[in-house]
Amino acid sequence: MSNSLLPYDQLCLRAREVRLIRDMGSTLGWDQETYLPPSGVAWRADQLSWLGAEAHRRFTAPEVGDWIAAAEADPARAAENEAEAELHQANLREWRHDYDLATRLPVALVEEAAQAQAHAKEAWVAARQSSDFSLFAPHLGKLIDISRRKADCWGYETCAYDALLNTYERGTRSDKLEILFNDLRKDLVPLVAEATSHPRSPEDLLAGHYAVEKQQAFNREVAEAVGFDFQAGRIDTTVHPFCTDLGPCDVRLTTRYDESDFRSSLFGVLHEAGHGLYEQGLPPGFRGQPAGDSVSLGVHESQSRLWENHVGRSLAFWEIWLPRAAAHFPHLSRLTPQAMYLAVNHAKRSMIRVEADEVTYDLHIMLRFEIERGIFSGDLTVQDIPGEWNARFHQLMGLAVPSDSQGCLQDIHWSLGGFGYFPTYSLGNLNAAHLFAAAQRQDPAISPALAQGDYAPLLGWLRTQIHQQGRRHLPGDLITRAAGAPVSSEAMLTHLRTRYLS
Amino acid sequence: MSNSLLPYDQLCLRAREVRLIRDMGSTLGWDQETYLPPSGVAWRADQLSWLGAEAHRRFTAPEVGDWIAAAEADPARAAENEAEAELHQANLREWRHDYDLATRLPVALVEEAAQAQAHAKEAWVAARQSSDFSLFAPHLGKLIDISRRKADCWGYETCAYDALLNTYERGTRSDKLEILFNDLRKDLVPLVAEATSHPRSPEDLLAGHYAVEKQQAFNREVAEAVGFDFQAGRIDTTVHPFCTDLGPCDVRLTTRYDESDFRSSLFGVLHEAGHGLYEQGLPPGFRGQPAGDSVSLGVHESQSRLWENHVGRSLAFWEIWLPRAAAHFPHLSRLTPQAMYLAVNHAKRSMIRVEADEVTYDLHIMLRFEIERGIFSGDLTVQDIPGEWNARFHQLMGLAVPSDSQGCLQDIHWSLGGFGYFPTYSLGNLNAAHLFAAAQRQDPAISPALAQGDYAPLLGWLRTQIHQQGRRHLPGDLITRAAGAPVSSEAMLTHLRTRYLS
Prior knowledge:
In chain A, a hairpin with a 2-residue loop joins strand 2 (about 245) and strand 3 (about 250-255). By secondary structure, chain A is mainly α. Chain A has 20 helices and 3 strands. Chain A has helices at about 5-35, 40-60, 60-75, 80-105, 105-130, 135-155, 160-170, 175-195, 210-225, 265-280, 295-310, 315-330, 335-345, 360-375, 385-395, 425-440, 445-450, 455-465, 475-485, 490-500, and strands at about 235, 245, 250-255. In chain A, about 45% of the residues are buried. In chain A, strands 1-3-2 form a 3-stranded mixed sheet, sandwiched between helices. Among the domains of chain A are: about 1-105, no CATH class; about 205-345 and about 435-500, Neurolysin, domain 3. Chains A and B meet through helix 1, helix 2 and strand 1 of A and helix 1, helix 2 and strand 1 of B.
């Protein structure tokens, strides 16, 4: 029966099946992070690799290439009108990209990478524990070599690093990123110096006990208020918070709790809920099609940062939410919204990226971006990394790195072969500020609504401009179309100045 | 590479893969019962049917039949010694059985059954709600017809019902079951009359508040004490308690909580932990092979009933556990172990099977067994069911059935096409008593250990005699070998008399 379908429709069917399989993997992965008994890990690993292989085999099958080529040759054939034809064009563009990425790597290279990553991750854990870079260095060298060979398979215009960047942020080039980041850096370094020079946080006013169940109740109120749909999602507890979408109506957030400080779980939930709102806002009925998928890491991160930092850490937010927080944690009623606003916006230079505040965070990323570029351009060798890291860190942050475990060994990403991933974090921050400013400019109802604790106008704007677009446009184009201008460091710097220097 | 393997080894590989897939289905099913957000159901249903189809396709593939036939022709070929040859024989016997069962049904009949069940379940829910049997009757008729056709495909010696029974309890014949149940019934009916005639339960001594977290803590202590391994298992909360094994080291129990009565969750956990101990005790390294699988529903239920009723409701148990329960629920310190023993062993005639105590439970099953036999022998039609049910229920239990929703519409099983399932509950009860008596007889250390709260000797006996046997023997043979005699009603009746009449 299915042989009589048009190639485009065949693609839709196959893509849906592949996504169905991948979503099972996500579900089993979620279970592994949340509830799997320790002894169940080995069987689970076999299941995940079985699902991975099945999805890969189905997506990279020769007939898929034939269907894409046939549909490309006559893209309007399966479309009923112009809007549908446009949608099909976008789907085909993205399927072509994904198919080429997936099929250009020889199986032997994929297997070599998986093996090398497994060993590298283990070596990284040991190296970080003993702060001994030499344990990790040979593995890192191997992973860099593999990534370089992958880049060669995928192809690139000017530098291998771009091919890697493109697996996370389609259409991004490192020379463009460099300009963007340099712009930011120029103003950010003095801004950090000023913002961290005068301690203004009444931290001790927050001291008290925050029972997990009360944090959970408060977090849920907040997540519901910003629009997270608990009929199609939930929040669980994990060591490392994340958001994962297990299906078109099944988005799961996780967070962790510190009973001496509610901020970690609350802002964790707001961050992950930002990711979750994006997933819940994708156009329904397109699961498996690029048109129904999130567009890139840098756009995804913009959604999480927007809700976490621009909404959740604003004074307007705490005007509304301080009394509600105090209903759960009565000792907070001693604070004013202004005091709480200061307490949740405290800038401080620090060693560890994942603990950094929104002012210093991007300096951590720039360091990693520069080192990754240096490695793939050939300017840096693996052996250079610790020294370069420490020198550049001191230059950017003004702090001496006491040990590699607090320096170049702190992140897991490289041990997973994730070169080119880090820049998407800063891109996310820049996009968040850029979009938030544009949204308020374009829809004058958004700011007054936020002051009333009404998040629907802002969410509505994001739904239309970002979420419902899926992968119809490349990430950079999507941001430009939504905000009316390409992303720059301007909105971010304005935001940080307003929040930290006034 | 795998083409150079012996047929037996091919079978092992394929069976492992099929089990890996089925275990993913179990995991996704567990998630659906525990944590899946309501809107995620549709996508999940698609995933479950995809996995079901993949597992079925792989197990029923023609090459599997060829491998079985080739291995049957030369069963010792892949075995290194006699013990291994015996194991292979057992695996082949069971693979042959499973393969024939799975391949003898035409695909059209399987699809017709799935369709009919989906409609029947919906109709059953509506019929039960309005207590209107006529809503369910046409669907039930259809399911009976389908089951009869399935039985014809599978084949049977004397009656179609036996073919259905055999899908749950391999090697069982309804005429043998009838003798067993009639034996039980003869003494059970007067025993019920006597046991329910004098109320002896000091129920109100239990009145009090049982916070969920405290019940959870106490239940966990008990489950750990009887040997349930929380490194390879866990307990969650569901509306309907169950036990499911998601992998060789991943067994998940569920229970539900009533904050006015701890008994429902505790005995629920002990019951499901009994199932779980069986799964955790299966021989490791054989996942997917019959030798590594549980043998039948009637043996599975014997394990749950043994721990729930014979261990958990015994006086010896409460001598140990009353003080520990009182540590969580201080008001229980008013009770003596004897009073608690009476409170957890209260016989009462009632309408609903799932709420029945261990004295009256089997009368509910006999009723269903008789009606199922009547239907498949042709003595009863669908229209006869309500009348027959009510008349026989009155005869067995001495109670008038006020409505079909409390009568023949109370169970979900028939709406799922599960004819022949009910008898395994009573078989489980009989097996439990039979095995528990044999264990104590064979190993004199068991009873004194139980009196000390040491469950290891009993568990050790069950591990050796039952769990580690997998499906090496047919269920009836397994019980006979373990207990030294075929199952009869003797041990069960002795147990009930001792507990309820003395």
